[in-house]
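Bumping my old thread because nobody answered last time. Still need a sequence for this structure:
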């Protein structure tokens, strides 16, 4: 899977929102947004799966601590459409990351790494980033 974007030194602080807007490929199978300290320490692996790895229209979330993946959590909400522009807002605090989906639905994922700042963002897969904003 080719990496579309990698950004480090983000310094996203608790309470701030990271807004990622992009275009989902017309033939999308899946895309990934990884947030954390670096590629081996990911507090949120956000992976909407259209049709891949046996998952259909499911969001899979996970974390990676020192290169080791945690337990996957699956979120049944799936407001993503192939060939559309979409936006996800992610904010976090000491306990959780809050992920706001394009339809306004919000769910939480535990901040398993207890990060106090998010410095790393990587996007890959069938998603072309148009805009990244901090609020």
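Sorry it took so long. Here it is:
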């Amino acid at each position: 899977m080719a990496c579309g974007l990698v950004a480090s030194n983000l310094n996203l602080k608790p309470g701030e929102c990271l807004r990622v807007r992009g275009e989902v490929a017309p033939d999308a199978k899946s895309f990934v947004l990884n947030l954390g300290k670096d590629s081996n320490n990911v507090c949120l692996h956000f992976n909407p799966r259209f049709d891949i790895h046996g998952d259909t229209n499911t969001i899979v979330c996970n974390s990676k601590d020192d290169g080791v993946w945690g337990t996957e959590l699956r979120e049944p909400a799936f407001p993503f459409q192939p060939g559309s522009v979409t936006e996800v807002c992610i904010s976090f605090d000491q306990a959780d990351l809050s992920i706001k989906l394009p339809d306004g639905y919000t769910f939480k994922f535990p901040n398993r790494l207890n990060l106090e700042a998010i410095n790393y963002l990587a996007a890959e897969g069938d998603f072309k980033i148009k805009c990244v904003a901090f609020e």
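The domain at 6-134 is CATH 2.60.120.200 (Jelly Rolls). Let me know if any region looks off to you.
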